[in-house]
Amino acid sequence: MHPGSVNLKSESPAHPTNKSDPDRRGATRYYFAAIAEIIDLDKPGELVSVTRDLSTSGCFVKTTTPFPTGTLVRIRITHSGAEFAAIGHVTANVTPTGMGIVFTEIESNDRAILEGWLADPLSNPPD
Fold it and tell me: Tell me: the pLDDT tens digits for 30-68?
């Protein structure tokens, strides 16, 4: 873990924690369209896409070429001139239209950016 970062592994993930209830998530998701760059940290692989949902614990990224479940990634999201970055991994929510990513490490300044984006309910209605 990097100095100044927060380890989120003990917080509720953005993907289902109860296999019998696939819509159960640990944080409120908001519709949030922004540019996302996702880098596979284990091997060469990168994609640029658009987010669909965002929460304090993860996001869903639209793509027709999702990384496999469990892939360790670095994600950078750009919105309204601000940039957020985190380390995470691809959740079991991999579909033909995209993939879920749960954040596992977020620097404190990036956490502030994320919370600022989610604090504006007019531009980010709950999903």
Answer: 899 999 999 999 988 899 999 999 999 999 999 999 999
pLDDT of res. 24: 45
Which two three-digit tokens encode residue 20?
A: 């019998």
DSSP tag of 6: E
What's the CA dihedral at 87, 14, 97, 82 to 10 degrees? -50
This prediction has a pTM of 0.76
Q: What whole-number distance in Å separates Cα of residue 97 and Cα of residue 112? A: 29
* Cα–Cα distance measured from residue 100 to residue 67, given in angstroms and rounded to the nearest whole number: 10
CATH number at residue 41: 2.40.10.220
Q: Please indicate, yes or no, if residue 61 is contained in any of the structural domains.
A: yes
Residue reference for tokens 């369209």: 33
The residues facing 40 across adjacent strands are 73
* Residues ≥6 apart with Cβ < 8 Å to 43: none
Per-residue pLDDT at 29: 85
Nearest C-alpha neighbor of 13 from the set 100, 125, 108: 100
